[in-house]
């Protein structure tokens, strides 16, 4: 069974220890079933929690000029537009089900864009997700069919950078 | 070698109510067509790919016969083109679906206990494939029937990269685009309905060939 299930660890903490657990084969040669279940469901929980929290009907569409997040984006990507392009491209090119994330590396302080398959969480890589876009077909199919590109454009219209700035402040304070 | 989108043997609405006409239309004209377009682009960029037919390209995934920088491209798009070309042939309107041949039925009973047990196992593989992928009934080397699932556009012909290689005789697309418009997240209901539109005549033919070690001729 996964350690921390008794409430002594946060979901994020457990997710960061998951790769070690998955690498340990059980008696059948497969990783512990609860670890695999945690990967899917814990990942899905964290990913969707952040996704819904970072969208808004009346969003702040860009970072506050001069804010720590704005500066970090400029440092890591060159500019806000460069970041958007990279995030858009990452979201568009995920094959199958998955996500594109803006992540913070807590060791280097750098921001980057990564892709993850299925419901895998960046916490598994020791990275902290700040913003993510769900590109599983269920996220866009009913309204847009296969037009993932249109969905990604529409998503930018509801991304709320105020929430991302809040998250960035929280994770960089510790 | 130019890849082409194959036609269906039935109208887009013909599998109603089990698979809806809008899904069939989008699935064929958009999703499958994109795999065809991308495979032709791959051949344009890497002409040596054009010397292999679609089946061979699938079988050679994970080997040095496919240039390393084209591997993912061919796996995803060549896999997608083969999978969908195969899928359309194992579907038929509900009124014309017949049943397994006596040879196939005997093999199913032998491998799984009964038709119901085979379906149960297949349904579990289809429902349990997390994310995008396919469920398969196939013939292993040695002639035994097996059930497996693959991720994304992989298929069991890709012997070098999949857990369980076999010659497919029946397959089911469980990417969300295959069912979301009608079933939304109710994948198990889609899987149940699939059995009403299985083209057993085609499956019987694929089985007969597979027991001789031959892959489906599409």
TrEMBL record, chain A:
This is superoxide dismutase. One of its GO terms (molecular function) is metal ion binding. Its EC number is 1.15.1.1. It holds the Pfam family Sod_Fe_C. GO terms for cellular component: cytoplasm. Residues 67-166 form the Manganese/iron superoxide dismutase C-terminal domain. Belongs to the iron/manganese superoxide dismutase family. It is an enzyme of class 1 (oxidoreductase). Keywords: Metal-binding, Oxidoreductase.
TrEMBL record, chain B:
It comes from the Eukaryota. Residues 2-91 form the Manganese/iron superoxide dismutase N-terminal domain. Keywords: Metal-binding, Oxidoreductase. It holds the Pfam family Sod_Fe_N. Mn(2+) binds at residues 27, 84, 173, 177. Its EC number is 1.15.1.1. One of its GO terms (molecular function) is superoxide dismutase activity. Residues 100-204 form the Manganese/iron superoxide dismutase C-terminal domain. It catalyses: 2 superoxide + 2 H(+) = H2O2 + O2. InterPro entries: Mn/Fe_SOD, Mn/Fe_SOD_BS, Mn/Fe_SOD_C, Mn/Fe_SOD_N, Mn/Fe_SOD_N_sf, SOD_C_sf. Signal peptide: none annotated. Coiled coil: none annotated. One of its GO terms (cellular component) is cytoplasm. Belongs to the iron/manganese superoxide dismutase family. Destroys radicals which are normally produced within the cells and which are toxic to biological systems. This is Superoxide dismutase. It comes from Chloropicon primus. The lineage of its organism: Eukaryota, Viridiplantae, Chlorophyta, Chloropicophyceae, Chloropicales.
């Amino acid at each position: 069974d996964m350690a921390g299930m008794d409430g002594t660890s946060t979901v994020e903490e457990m997710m960061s220890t998951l790769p070690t657990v998955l690498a340990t084969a059980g008696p059948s040669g497969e990783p512990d079933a609860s670890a695999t279940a945690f990967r899917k469901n814990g990942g899905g929980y964290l990913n969707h929690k952040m996704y819904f929290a970072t969208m808004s009907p009346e969003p702040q569409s860009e970072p506050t000029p001069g804010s720590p997040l704005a500066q970090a984006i400029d440092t890591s990507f060159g500019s806000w537009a460069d970041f958007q392009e990279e995030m858009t491209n990452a979201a568009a090119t995920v094959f199958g089900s998955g996500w594109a994330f803006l992540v913070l590396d807590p060791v280097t302080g750098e921001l980057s864009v990564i892709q993850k398959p299925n419901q895998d969480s960046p916490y598994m890589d020791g990275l902290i997700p700040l913003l993510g876009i769900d590109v599983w077909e269920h996220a866009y199919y009913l309204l847009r069919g296969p037009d993932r590109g249109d969905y990604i454009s529409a998503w930018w219209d509801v991304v709320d950078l105020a929430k991302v700035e809040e998250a960035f402040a929280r994770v960089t304070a510790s | 070698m130019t890849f082409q989108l194959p036609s269906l043997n039935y109208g887009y609405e013909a599998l109603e109510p089990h698979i809806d006409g809008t899904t069939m239309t989008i699935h064929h004209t958009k999703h499958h067509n994109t795999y065809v377009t991308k495979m032709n682009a791959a051949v344009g960029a890497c002409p040596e790919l054009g010397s292999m037919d679609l089946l061979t390209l699938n079988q050679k995934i994970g080997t040095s016969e496919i240039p390393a920088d084209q591997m993912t491209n061919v796996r995803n798009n060549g896999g997608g083109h083969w999978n969908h070309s195969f899928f359309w042939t194992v579907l038929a309107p509900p009124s014309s679906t017949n049943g397994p041949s006596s040879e196939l039925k005997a093999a199913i009973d032998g491998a799984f206990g009964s038709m119901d047990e085979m379906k149960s196992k297949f349904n579990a593989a289809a429902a349990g494939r997390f994310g995008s992928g396919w469920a398969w009934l196939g013939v292993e080397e040695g002639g035994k029937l097996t059930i497996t699932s693959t991720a994304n556009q992989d298929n069991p012909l890709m012997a070098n990269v999949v857990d369980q290689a076999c010659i497919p005789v029946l397959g089911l697309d469980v990417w969300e685009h295959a069912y979301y418009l009608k079933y939304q997240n109710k994948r198990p209901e889609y899987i149940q309905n699939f059995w009403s539109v299985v083209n057993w005549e085609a499956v019987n033919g694929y089985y007969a060939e597979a027991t001789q070690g031959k892959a489906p001729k599409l």
